[in-house]
Specification:
The complex is a heterodimer. Chain A is of the alpha+beta class. Chain A is built from nine helices and eleven strands. Chain B is built from two helices and five strands. Chain B is α+β, with helices and mostly antiparallel strands. Classes of the chains: A alpha+beta, B alpha+beta. At the A-B interface, α6, β9, α7, α8 and β11 of A face β5 of B.
């Protein structure tokens, strides 16, 4: 599978790089196609490469000793995974599994160091990516502490709606996944969906969750 | 068009727990296999997915903007 420049420039570390720089960087990139339902990274295992999601989506998750899953985030096109293991000497704290067929562009740690030396703009991009991610994690932690499940579910639905509006493929999710994303169990998600429906924020029709009042969801998701 | 839960026949071991759990009568046991058929009584509650020990059933929800 060949690396395409027009796809490489969608990767979060390489946005705003000029054509010549992208060409030079592409020599270090390898491409990988992964089918749906496959684990790309295992929590605690060493993988010395960073991966950019070029198409499709993955879930990044942690697993408890009892086997409960907590989905930290869903990763879409342009985003990167395994950054922590690439910049630190410890293996990743999270596993990654594909939710659809995925194309990944990979970059090995020693090659990343070479790119950082030659293209300072990449360092700036990385700083922005990691700072946005830190902001997201702070929001997530705050939400888990201060918001009830219905409020967390409201925020999740708004986020997924945004993805649907941006034209992302496969904006579909199971109750189990929703539970794993907001730190609860499936039964509570099911109850909260009914609560949101009773409040007039959503309407459930067969397998569709229709956002009927964005304002109400926003109100519920506010810290 | 009515959407039904998805069954991965490769993962299903035909234990029949989903048949017992389904209150919509949408899951049918056939010897050592199960089959999901179109049923107006299926309200996509997700219980079949929750009880399946093989994780062979998936109920995907679509988030639809207003």
């Amino acid at each position: 599978m060949t690396v395409k420049i027009e796809l490489l420039k969608t990767a979060c570390y390489f946005t705003k790089l000029d054509e010549a720089s992208l060409q030079a960087v592409s020599r270090f990139i390898f491409a990988k196609q992964v089918p749906v339902g496959e684990v790309v990274l295992w929590e605690g295992e060493e993988d010395e490469a960073i991966y950019f999601v070029i198409s499709g989506q993955l879930k990044l998750f942690a697993t408890s000793a009892e086997g409960r899953e907590f989905i930290v985030r869903i990763v879409y096109g342009g985003d990167s995974i395994n950054d922590d293991a690439t910049f630190e000497i410890e293996p990743s704290k999270l596993s990654a599994m594909t939710l659809s067929p995925v194309v990944l562009y990979g970059l090995r740690k020693p090659d990343l160091a070479r790119i950082l030396r030659d293209y300072p703009l990449v360092s700036l991009n990385i700083a922005q990516v990691l700072s946005a991610r830190q902001r997201y994690l702070v929001q997530l932690a705050t939400e888990l502490v201060f918001k009830n499940v219905t409020g967390r579910l409201a925020r999740l639905l708004l986020e997924r709606e945004k993805q649907a509006l941006s034209g992302a493929e496969n904006v579909r999710v199971t109750q189990q996944e929703m539970a794993a994303m907001i730190g609860t169990v499936r039964e509570i998600v099911s109850r909260s969906l009914r609560e949101l429906e009773a409040m007039g924020a959503i309407s459930m029709k067969n397998n569709q969750i229709i956002i009927t009042s964005r304002e109400r969801l926003l109100e519920l998701s506010r810290p | 068009m009515k959407v039904m839960p998805e069954l991965n026949v490769e993962l299903c071991d035909g234990c029949g727990l989903c048949v017992i759990a389904c209150h919509g009568g949408a899951i049918i046991q056939e010897d050592d296999r199960v089959r999901i058929e179109l049923s107006e009584d299926c309200d996509f509650c997700g219980v079949c997915e929750a009880v399946c020990p093989q994780q062979a059933i998936t109920c995907f929800y679509l988030i639809v903007p207003a």
